[in-house]
Amino acid sequence: MPPVSTNPAAGWTLLTSASEHPLAVLADTVVGQGVWLAVEIGPRNRVGAQHFRATLVSDDLGRTIEPTIQGLNHTGALPLQHWIEITDYLDRPSLESGQFVEIPEGIELRIIASVAALVPAGGQLMIEYDSPSRSVTASALAAGVPPVATPLGGMMFAVGCGISIRDHDFTAGGRAGRRKLRGFRATDIDHERVRGREMFSELEAFMGRSKELDWLVQSQTRPIAEATITILRGQLDVPDGPVPPTG
């Protein structure tokens, strides 16, 4: 992964919170104690999506050389045309001092939540799971675990972009691109309840068959599934028992 360049001649421009750009709200976002994001925008691709990347800046440790996240941002006239894709995530970037720093889960969640906040109702958030830090998610999906019960899918649900999550595994279909999860933000409360019922049923079925899975996969996914079921019960106002059918 190339070092960060803030030279506009190289095609990248450093944003500030005062910049007139949709991604400017990410600039200088605090994601931990004394830790914030430095965000750059790059060129647009052939479909009009704009490249962006973000490094971490720490009061104590300085700035990371490699981007923690790299991605694409696209806007359009329709809700589904508003999407953000995180194409690369690096959980152990190097610092200007030459050392490496492990990004804690809490900071990672705040980074993803900050990006997800830019996705409007009906929009999409896509995040790759090919990077080494997503290996548990990749293994769980390969074992047939529902996307929302994986570590990555659970995080997408937690930040509001997981009312429905689809797995895009391109390895079997021969298409180019990294494997990723595509999460949707609900268009309204009715959409949220309909999709919530579907997700609840899927998770209940998963819990019934999850004991057949590898122990490591179970230990990493069952707690996420249980927590999500609890949240969905609250949203659907069903404290116990199965979710009644609609109509």
Question: What features would you describe in this structure?
Answer:
- The protein has 247 residues and is an alpha+beta fold.
- It has 2 domains: 1-103, no CATH class; 119-242, no CATH class.
- Helix content is 29%, strand content 22%.
- It has helices at 105-116, 135-142, 151-158, 189-209, 215-236; strands at residues 13-14, 30-32, 35-44, 50-58, 62-63, 69-74, 83-89, 124-128, 164-168, 180-184.
- Strands 1, 2, 3, 4, 5, 6, 7, 8, 9 and 10 form a 10-stranded mixed beta sheet that branches.
- Strand 7, helix 1 and strand 8 form a beta-alpha-beta unit.
- Helix 4 runs antiparallel to helix 5.
- It starts with 12 loop residues before the first strand and ends in an 11-residue tail after the last helix.
Summarize this structure briefly.
With 247 residues, the protein is an alpha+beta fold. The chain has five helices and ten strands; from the N terminus they run βββββββαβααββαα.
Give me the secondary-structure topology.
Blueprint: E1 13-14, E2 30-32, E3 35-44, E4 50-58, E5 62-63, E6 69-74, E7 83-89, H1 105-116, E8 124-128, H2 135-142, H3 151-158, E9 164-168, E10 180-184, H4 189-209, H5 215-236
Parallel strand pairs: 7-8
Antiparallel strand pairs: 1-3, 2-3, 3-4, 4-5, 4-6, 6-7, 8-10, 9-10
Which features characterize this protein?
247 residues; alpha+beta; 2 domains; ten-stranded mixed β-sheet; globular
In whole angstroms, the N-to-C terminal distance is 53 Å
Q: Specify the biggest β-sheet.
A: 10 strands, mixed
Note the run of SSEs as H and E: EEEEEEEHEHHEEHH
Q: Which residue ranges are poorly predicted, with pLDDT under 50 across at least 5 consecutive positions? A: 1-6
Average of pLDDT: 90
In one word, what is the shape?
globular
Binned strand content: 15-25%
- How many β-strand runs? 10
How many individual domains?
Answer: 2
Rg of Cα set = 19 Å
- Number of helical runs? 5
Regarding quaternary structure, what we see is single chain
Structural class: alpha+beta
Bin the helical content: 25-40%
